[in-house]
Write the structure tokens for this entry.
Amino acid sequence: MNTHALIQRHSAGERLNHWLVALAFVLAALSGLGFFHPAFFWLTGLFGGGTWARILHPFFGAVLALSFFVWAGREWKDNRIVAADWQWARRMGDVLRNRTDNLPPLGKYNLGQKLLTRTMLVAILLLLASGILIWQPWFAPEFAIAQRRIAVVVHAGAAFVALIGFIVHVYAAYWTRGSIQAMTRGTVTRAWARHHSADWYKKIAE
């Protein structure tokens, strides 16, 4: 069997959904950071100044939330945590040394990816809920000042967690050779699939 032969890991629709999430996240993060601290205010210039950044930021956030929820819904069945995931985690030393002899066969995603999906889901839900409370001038006037103050703190905390999660995701994709191709071209080699997602590969091979 040709181990360099390519197989499809993500469809065109899945890749489009993923990159929409990524684009919306970057735009929301850059516009939001501009108001997080004066040192970052220069970032608002990317959107035409402070006024436009303030107007556009919640819309970027809404697109991010919607597109991420669609992605999570489409991929949820492959993100269910099973016994093999915990066995894989207990052998993290072998994972880091790239030794697969004693590792259990995994599905489409490993435990780290599944936990990151859950973390981002909670963070984005909090960002959406708190963002609505402070969205001027549409929704904020309907809430008490105390509620809005709490929402600001929650929004900042959830944004920090989401940003760390995004950085971890990008680093892991770069560190795991072949992962970026899976999301740009939609394909991986058979050898990659057998190495990283043996159980998933077995099912599609059948």
Summary: The chain is about 65% helix and 5% strand. The chain has a mean pLDDT of 93. The first strand starts at residue 6 and ends at 8. The CA atoms of residues 34 and 118 lie 27 Å apart.
